[in-house]
């Protein structure tokens, strides 16, 4: 069974559109500070794998405003909690920086190595990388090797849009200020949003690869 380590059941429902069997697991993994989404998701996937003891996926996502140097990017959740969504929208519009995109990285770890494919692999700091697979599989988050020795496959999805005045009552986070194809994410029904979302695009890539790995 594949575990999606998240407390957001909406993410799990979305994942089931692309995966035959996936369950949600609540686990408070470490969210490190980094300038890119990949290392954050990869570290979380390693800790989640050590906790669950089986195949896991973890995701990290953010809103990247091009004219603001990619802000808030990997810090989107923190900025939402501190500045607020409407304030971010105001900053972008005042700067004339309305071009933006949502990005999501799905990180997968099952304790085993991967064959070469176009998707990147995060090896962390490679400490203990030569340990036997069964030693890695029984590691806990207190073990030094967990932080960097397990390979993690990364799958990215992105969707372009622009920053607008808040519109719509649906969605969550930055959805009311992010317009794609004439409507904000908050104006779309859940199924419509999932069909074009950054997370959906990352899950589609992962689902195709995971089916081949499972065969």
Automatic annotation (TrEMBL):
InterPro entries documented for this protein: ITPase-like_fam, RdgB/HAM1
Gene Ontology MF term list: hydrolase activity
Keywords: Hydrolase
Keyword Hydrolase in annotation: yes
Database matches in Gene3D superfamilies: 3.90.950.10
Signal peptide: none
Name of a matching Pfam family: Ham1p_like
Claim: Isomerase is one of the keywords in the record: no
Lineage top rank: taxon: Archaea
PANTHER family (alphabetical): INOSINE TRIPHOSPHATE PYROPHOSPHATASE (PTHR11067:SF9), INOSINE TRIPHOSPHATE PYROPHOSPHATASE/HAM1 PROTEIN (PTHR11067)
Homology family: Belongs to the HAM1 NTPase family.
Protein name, entry field: Non-canonical purine NTP pyrophosphatase
Organism encoding this protein: Halomarina halobia
């Amino acid at each position: 069974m594949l575990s999606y380590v998240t407390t957001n059941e909406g993410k799990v429902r979305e994942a089931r559109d692309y995966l035959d069997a996936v369950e949600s697991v609540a686990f408070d993994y470490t969210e490190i500070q980094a300038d890119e989404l990949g290392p954050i998701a990869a570290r979380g996937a390693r800790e989640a794998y050590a906790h669950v003891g089986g195949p896991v996926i973890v995701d990290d996502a953010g809103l990247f405003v091009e004219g603001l140097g990619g802000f808030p990017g990997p810090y989107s959740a923190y900025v939402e909690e501190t500045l607020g969504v409407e304030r971010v929208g105001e900053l972008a519009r005042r700067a004339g920086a309305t071009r933006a995109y949502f990005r999501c990285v799905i990180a997968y770890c099952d304790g085993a190595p991967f064959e070469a494919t176009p998707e990147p692999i995060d090896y962390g700091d490679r400490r203990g990388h030569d340990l036997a697979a069964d030693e890695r599989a029984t590691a806990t988050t207190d073990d030094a090797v967990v932080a960097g020795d397990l390979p993690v496959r990364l799958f990215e999805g992105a969707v372009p849009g622009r920053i607008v005045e808040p519109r719509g009552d649906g969605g969550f986070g930055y959805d009311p200020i992010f317009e794609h194809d004439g409507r904000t994410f908050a104006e779309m029904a859940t199924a419509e949003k999932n069909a074009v979302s950054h997370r959906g695009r990352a899950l589609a890539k992962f689902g195709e690869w995971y089916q081949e790995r499972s065969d």
